[in-house]
């Protein structure tokens, strides 16, 4: 939603006749039962019987609020994150992989609150800790100085965001309009 919502005005201007209904859920969609034409799913991109096109797969970056950074010693190395509360999005795996990759042996990656939805974004903005987020999701906050990229250590993850839909849906002009627009937007970053 952090990526999609700020861009929807562009889609509405480009395709004013397409009426969108957006449902935010962590449940796997059943296209027939739920009467859904298209979904944006976070995963590995393998959805049997469905078309799947990658939208976003950029690496995760470490971010914090300026107020939190002002209260900490300078963060110059990966191990310096031991002074921070790690904020987790969905589970604790991303920080575990990040700590191993950058040899942050003094960072306790299995502690800190776990959030769902946009909770991790709200927590990092409130100065509750540092988070691993995708730059395209927080571009506005970075530009406005509400968040700051910490260190330059990015984590490439296997999970990405995919546009997923039944093969038969490609015949629908509205879906094709949304599909074409979403893929073009994802290429812009």
UniProtKB/TrEMBL annotation:
Pfam families: LysR_substrate. It comes from the Bacteria. SUPFAM superfamilies: Periplasmic binding protein-like II. One of its GO terms (molecular function) is DNA-binding transcription factor activity. GO terms for biological process: DNA-templated transcription. Gene3D superfamilies: Periplasmic binding protein-like II. Residues 2-184 form the LysR substrate-binding domain. Belongs to the LysR transcriptional regulatory family. This is LysR substrate-binding domain-containing protein.
